[in-house]
Amino acid sequence: MNPDFLINDDLTPEQKTRRNIDRKLRECGWSVQNYRSYNPSENLGVAVREYPTDTGPVDYALFVDRKPIGVIEAKKDGAILSNHEEQTEEYAKSKFKWQIGEDVMPFVYEANVQDGYLYLDEIKTINVTAEELRKYSLMNGDILFTEGGDKDKLGRGTIWHGEIELCIHQNHIFRARVDSGQFVPEYISYATKTTRARDYFLSKAKQTTNLASLNMTSLKNLQLPSIPLVHPLSSESDIVVSWQPLKPS
Question: I need a surface site. Which of 134, 171, 209, 240 has the fewest CB within 10 A?
């Protein structure tokens, strides 16, 4: 149970320790979040409660600029370090769930997905499981969107054209896979760059002082401009051809 919602007399010794850790982390500028609802874009430093690893959930996983840097274990006051040294060492060597797996794959993350193009000069790799490979693999024509970032870049994205033969996307990148027999990916990608779409993204975003983030539900609910013509696919293609010369170089 989250100790934030309990009065002090109802807390177990470990919950009291967690409340103190939460307070001290926040005093130092960290954002303290629960794993099932955490938003990595909310703050430079994010402490995530009960983050899963290959050795079990850690009490707190620490991320700086989305990169894992360490863990914190909550023990009751008066606990002797030597009694928990082995467990602490095991957690310190553990792998976060995203990193578990035997296949090393290149992956696209937020810095790679720019507004209308891909920046692929720096590609990272990660160990993934077969299930993660199936879930996050990219296909030619996928539209990629960033989950969050600077407010003026909210909802930025572009189209994946198979630039890397076998590649996955980070879980903070949203992937839209369209029916090529019904839609032209370029048309949908351009439509999400309109003022109307950007205003919608901003209205649905979770915002802090300088940052904003979207969720998948809001992205899915974006209403695209309809084309009331007999052959909408041809019409979309015509619009794409007309817009392409206007793309910035």
Answer: 209
